[in-house]
Amino acid sequence: MLTENYLLPLHVNSTTQIMLKDKIEALKAQIAELKADNEEALEALRIKYLSKKGEVTALFNEFREVAPEEKRELGQRLNELKNLATEKINALREATKQQAKEQNKIDITRPAFPAELGTRHPISVVRKQIIDIFSRLGFTIADGPEVEDDWHVFSALNFAADHPARDMQDTFFIEKNEQDVTRNIVLRSHTSSVQVRTMERQQPPIRIICPGRVYRNEAITARAHCFFHQIEGLYIDKNVTFADLKQVLLHFAKELFGTETEIRLRPSYFPFTEPSAEMDVTCMLCGGKGCGFCKHTGWVEILGCGMVDPAVLEASGIDSTVYSGYAFGLGVERITNLKYMVKDLRMFSENDVRFLDEFKSAH
Ligand code: PHE
Q: Would the CB of 304 count as within 6 Å of ligand 1?
């Protein structure tokens, strides 16, 4: 009885021992094969084998049941198993880290195309075409501020104090002085202000173009916007005549719209030019025959011009008995509309890439 009682736990122990040995070997084989390709998978493996409730830890619990004489060998095997699992998981961790690093590396051998190229804005394209034409005629570019005082936008250009262009309907005011309009600060409503600044700085000969953005207090529609772009031209020297103006404008129209283009000057009025005119060019759609676009006249208007009023020359310190000059001003949006048949002005400021992409080949 005693022997039997004694043997019983022994028997249990040796069964546990055999089973444990097998389990250790099986786990070893399993662990040797482990794979993980990211941090989460790796953590899952660590939990599965090495955490408190993990499979390796479970075998250590079983080990407590093992007979003392077996403990040495099995203990050794168990420790080997634990080391194996720890090493394997560490090795896998290194490998995933390395892999992540590789993935973050820029592969300089990858082909660079297709790379989306940006396009020039149609307004920039046409502005450049216009500037190039006048540069070839010897005009240089002049610049000035967009926030201007009343003097440079209106007073020096012969606008009477009660001229409607100074009114709220047309002009954006930065500072408005009710008593004295000449003290107003405005967003320039035309680039003619740059004429004045240049004449104040420089004696003739003056031959400049002034490209720039201008602002007018208008409701935004397909045909009007509260800002747009102008290019103003000014030429002052001795003996400058209206014939010079006509010749330059004819050359400009032929360069921009094609050699077949003709021009027509109609009398007009601007406070700062005398005489003044508006210029039409032959309709580029029908070639002058008359169509819906030109309202069956064969002509489309593109700019305003005239001989600089002597009062304007004098206001900027230029002797009008010695010098004369001409000026002209055009809207870049309007010319772009005509060249590319853009019907809605708002397209120019909405940055719709489908619209802008159409100008990929323009330059
Ligand atoms: N500044 C005028 C405008 O904005 C255009 C213009 C310029 C007319 C020069 C004549 C001479 O409408």
A: yes
Choice from 272, 274, 308, 313 to test ligand 1 binding pocket (greatest atom count within 8 A of CB): 272
Distances (CA, A) of 107 to 102, 103, 111: 9, 9, 9
Contact 21, 57 (CB under 8 A): no
CA pair distance 89, 43, nearest whole angstrom: 9
CA dihedral (27, 30, 34, 39) positive or negative: negative
What is the rounded end-to-end Cα distance, in angstroms, of the chain? 109
Q: Is 180 helix (H, G, I), strand (E, B) or coil?
A: coil
Q: How many helices (H) and strands (E) does the chain have?
A: 12, 10
Please name which of 159, 351, 152 lies closest in space to residue 232, comparing C-alpha atoms.
Answer: 152
- For the Cβ of 329 lying below 6 angstroms from any atom of ligand 1, the answer is yes
Looking at the CA of residue 330, tell me the nearest atom of ligand 1.
5
How many Cβ atoms from other residues are within 10 Å of residue 319's Cβ? 11
Give me the tens of pLDDT residue by residue for the chain, a chain 363 residues long.
444 444 444 445 556 667 888 888 888 888 888 888 888 888 898 899 988 998 888 888 888 888 888 888 888 988 998 999 899 989 888 888 888 887 788 878 877 777 777 888 999 999 999 999 999 999 999 999 999 999 999 999 999 888 887 876 689 999 988 888 889 999 999 999 999 999 999 999 999 999 999 999 988 988 889 999 999 999 999 999 999 999 999 999 999 999 999 999 999 999 999 999 999 999 988 888 998 888 999 999 999 999 999 999 999 999 999 999 999 999 999 999 888 888 888 999 998 988 988 888 776
Q: Ligand 1: which residue has its CA nearest to atom 3?
A: 190
Backbone phi and psi for residue 220, each to the nearest 5 degrees, phi listed first: -80, 120
328 lines ligand 1 (CB under 6 A): yes
Q: What is the C-alpha separation between 338 and 321, in angstroms, rounded?
A: 39
The burial class, CB within 10 Å (0-12 / 13-18 / 19+), for 208 is buried
Q: Which residue owns the Cα nearest ligand 1 atom 5?
A: 329
